[in-house]
Specification:
Layout lengths: L4 H37 L2 H21 L4 H19 L1
Helix pairs in contact: 1-2, 1-3, 2-3
InterPro entries: Ribosomal_bS20 (IPR002583), Ribosomal_bS20_sf (IPR036510)
Family: Belongs to the bacterial ribosomal protein bS20 family.
Protein name: Small ribosomal subunit protein bS20
Length: about 90
């Protein structure tokens, strides 16, 4: 453990941010899984609504700095391809 007061605070804030980021990433994975499950079930309407929710969560994660913007764009693109292929 650190002796310096500022470093002790830094350790605490890093731990809090890590927990927050972990929660955001867990939400992301859950919303992405819901889209994939809806696509696998063949339900186009559920997949569309789940895609909207997942896109919103991905954008929110980018704005909070949890994930990189390119990673979110790649995930949104891949999910949209799956949903669009389902609706055709």
């Amino acid at each position: 453990m650190a002796n310096i007061k500022s470093q002790i605070k830094r350790i605490k804030t890093n731990a809090a941010r890590t927990e927050r980021n972990r929660a955001h990433k867990s939400e992301l994975r859950t919303s992405i899984r819901k889209v994939r499950e809806a696509v696998a079930a063949g339900d186009a309407t559920a997949a569309g609504t789940a895609l909207q929710a997942a896109s919103k969560r991905l954008d929110k994660a980018v704005s909070k700095g949890v994930i990189h913007a390119n990673q979110a764009a790649n995930k949104k693109s891949a999910l949209a391809k799956k949903v669009n292929a389902l609706s055709k």
